[in-house]
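thread: overnight batch results

M.L. [08:02]
morning all. the overnight job finished for the chain we discussed friday. pasting input first so we're all looking at the same thing
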Amino acid sequence: MSYIDKYLLFLANKRLLSNNTIRSYKADLNCFSSYCFKYKKLDDLHKVDKVIINSYLKFLYGKNLSSLTVTRRLVTIRSFFKFLKRNNSIILSGLDSVKGPKNIKKLPEILSERQMDSLFNEILVNCNAPNRDSLVIELFYSTGVRVSEITKIELRHINFNKNTIKIIGKGSSERLVIFGKRLLFKLKKYVDGLNNGQKFLFQSNLKKIVKPLSSKTIYNIVKKYFKLMSKNEKLSPHSIRHSFATHMLNNGADILTVKELLGHKSLSSTQIYTQVQTSKIKKTYFQSHPHGK
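M.L. [08:03]
and the structure it wrote out:
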């Protein structure tokens, strides 16, 4: 078994990462190993050093990749070699001193409350499966869940009496999200039409094997209506998650509550939404204050 395969097995069995995340790690490491073997003529990863990693970063810059992509690939390499060091396979010194690009943290794409209304209107006008598609988007907006989390929702996870759903997040972590009357109505309407014995809330019917709709299918459902509503290609299901957090904060929610609902481990991940609030405040100031115009 190769070093990369051992590492991917560790990610799956010990860190319990999702298949999508593991595929991303695998693609990054395969790209790096291909570079080492093809361009540096290495026959073994034991011969990798800090100079080669810096050379690889320059190679990535030359491909005009975004700073976020380059940073992600460097983080993957660091994590991989730390794993090998812990297992006494390869010891690579000086890796932490390799500097990646400076990332400018961009503010997330946010939809206004009016745009969210427009999104639901597009479903009413252009949808062949309005109950399902409206529920998918309502779940994103009412709970702030991720695409991968929606696919894991089982019917038994939904408590209609307490208005809660158990969400299986990153690393198989669990949290409860709360929902209101609008989502409750859509859930009941949709669930009443399902086959008896169905396991997942959104289940694939293409094969006899019981499995949920894929993340790609959920993504495409949402993306379809964005294309009908807006020319902004950057809008995605994650934009609705961003909108959930921003609208909560704009309407008085405290940041710690939003952090818990989003399933963030670190408060810094949630604090980006306070930057969105600041930009909104600045815009209002310059529009409204006599000396700001």
